[in-house]
């Protein structure tokens, strides 16, 4: 019964299409793997991941990709292939198509992107950004839209 009431409430609030919204504060993309979002309580359907570049990368080559890191020792899975985003400007958007072999979008600096075309199912664990760079000062604010598959599944900013 609780699930039906939540579903009706979500329709009323307009959350059924892309799902619930979680925003992570603007932060430097550090070298290595950095958790962006933490998933607890079960599986979720990720409908959109959007990055907004707030501080440019100052000509330093930076290659990034997103990765799902399940808990319990399961193997991490790339959500997209890596792309060098050093030439992108403040205000540019980043996203994924949902196909793991596609590079992070868009291919060049752009203030608009196509929405995620394939939803991604992630289990308990985290969604992380993986970056290869040195001395980076560029910053990105990440937003994730999701729908819980399991009743107790929740996503929060890491």
* Low-confidence runs of at least 5 consecutive residues: none
Total individual domains: 1
Give helix and strand order, one letter per element, not per position.
Answer: HEEEEEEEEEEEE
Rg calc: 16 Å
| Major β-sheet annotation | 6 strands, antiparallel
How far apart the termini lie comes to: 31 Å
Protein structure class: mainly beta
Measured by DSSP, the beta-strand proportion falls in: 35-45%
CATH topology-level name:
Jelly Rolls
| Quaternary form | single chain
| Residue-averaged pLDDT | 89
What share of residues is helical?
A: under 10%
Query: What would the principal axes of the Cα set say about the shape?
Result: globular
Task: Please give the CATH class.
Answer: Mainly Beta
How many beta-strand segments? 12
Which CATH architecture? Sandwich
- Helical segment count: 1
